[in-house]
Amino acid sequence: MSELYAARRGRLRDRCAAAGSGAALVSRPANVRYLAGGAPPGAVLLLGPSAGEADVLICPGTPTADPADGRPDEQLRIMVLPAPGGDAVVAAARTAAAAGAESLAVEENHLTVARHRALGSVAPTLRLGDLAGAVEQLRIVKDEEEIASIRIAAEITDQALGELLESILVGRTERHLALELERRLVDHGADGTAFPTSVATGPNSGLGRHRPSDRRVEEGDFLSVCLGANYRGYRCEIGRTFVIGTTPAEWQIELYDVVFAAQRAGREALVPGAEYRQVDRAARHVLAAAGHGEAVAPRTGHGVGLEIEEDPQLAPAAMGKLDACVPVTVEPGVHLPGRGGVRIDDTLVVRPEADGGPELLTITTKELLAL
After folding, report:
1. What is the strand order of the sheet 127-130 is part of?
2. Which of 75, 169, 259, 354 has a CA between 20 and 30 Å from the CA of residue 250?
3. Does residue 177 contact residue 217 with C-beta atoms inside 8 Å?
């Protein structure tokens, strides 16, 4: 594993060198974990111009053995700040300046204005630059070990959802069902939830990221759920819609069939070289043709990994093309105000056609079940 993290840091170092930066300061937790193997709370990673001792993980306090934080690469030097409450970002700037660095690339979009000013104050000789999403770009394509963790997260999520479908749902609140799903995720081996679990019933169904309420499940409701497990830092997402306790109404069947067709079109568009917006367009076209263009979410999907909503974005204005080994969601949905709606959401890995095409990680049935 040390070689893996060293290789990742080497790729970032090469990018910094090409941009004229001699050192880099990584402060965004997911990026720290990607490069260092672990991200204790408040820790930052300082990369020097050459590999080896110049790479330092700076922590405000002594790292614990909490598996949720990961395990720092043994090749890294770990510096623990002597005073509690110290700022690791400021300490990193001092360290870089003391080592003779002339420039330092930082994650400007993660630093507050006050922190950025503090860097200039403690190390006035350092020329500050911007990493500008360089680490996020490296994270888009996953190695097979990362994909294996996402696959296990998906298996855990499928198990939790499958068990819920076997229980009695009528009369229970959205909030209670969400709490039960989150407990089941942990019971099956998740380190936690990938994001707050969404359970939406009746007129709330089909809303993206709906916050569960005290509304009780009633017969004839649409029930939409969206959940995901966090396993070793890697996350997945699944969303399904069901009908409660009775044969679906005609309008429910028609709406479900349209969203299902849109989701299938989006999944089939996941091929290496496809434009991000092309995938979005494939799903969006189906919904618009059925008269639901105004009720569609602003994007069809997004990348998943150490964060639940990372690049790439599968949206109308997104620029870029898919590579192989990129895990993404495809999650079209339609919400009809006052009536409810449908969301169908899967996590998949982009694979070339020679390898069987997109790899579906979340396998809970997409049949319109009456529970």
Report:
1. 77-80, 56-59, 44-47, 24-26, 103-106, 127-130
2. 169
3. yes
User: Residues 174, 220, 222, CA angle at the centre, nearest 5°?
Assistant: 50
Distance (Å, rounded) from C-alpha 139 to C-alpha 141?
6
Query: Comparing C-alpha atoms, which of 336, 240, 252, 241 is closest to residue 294?
Result: 336
User: How many residues would you count in the chain?
Assistant: 371
Tokens of 154: 């998906």
Report angle CA 228, 230, 232 to the nearest 5 degrees.
Answer: 155
Q: Look up residue 265 and give its amino acid.
A: A
So what's the pLDDT on residue 52? 54
Interval 316-343: pLDDT, tens:
999 999 999 999 999 999 999 999 999 9
Q: What are phi and psi of 39, to 5 degrees?
A: -140, 80
DSSP state of 70: B
Mean pLDDT to the nearest integer, 277-300? 91
Q: pLDDT tens digit string along 51-88?
A: 555 699 999 988 887 777 889 998 899 999 987 778 99
110 CB-side CA count, 13 A: 21
pLDDT at 53: 58
Instruction: Report d(CA 133, CA 118) in Å as an integer.
Output: 22
State the Cα–Cα distance between residues 33 and 21, nearest whole angstrom: 22
Give the number of other CB atoms < 10 A from CB of residue 268: 14
pLDDT > 90 fraction of the chain, expressed in percent and rounded? 78
Report the pLDDT value the prediction gives residue 339, as an integer from 0 to 100. Answer: 94
Q: In the structure, how many helices (H) and strands (E) does the chain have?
A: 9, 19
Alpha helices in 213-334 (DSSP H): 250-268, 276-289
The rounded distance, in Å, linking the Cα atoms of 199 and 178 is 6
Amino acid residing at 94: R
d(CA 240, CA 244): 13
Look at residue 125 in the predicted model and tell me its pLDDT. 86
26 close to 47: Cβ distance less than 8 angstroms: yes
Burial class (CB in 10 A: 0-12, 13-18, 19+), 109: exposed
Q: Which value, in Å, is the radius of gyration of the alpha carbons in the chain?
A: 23
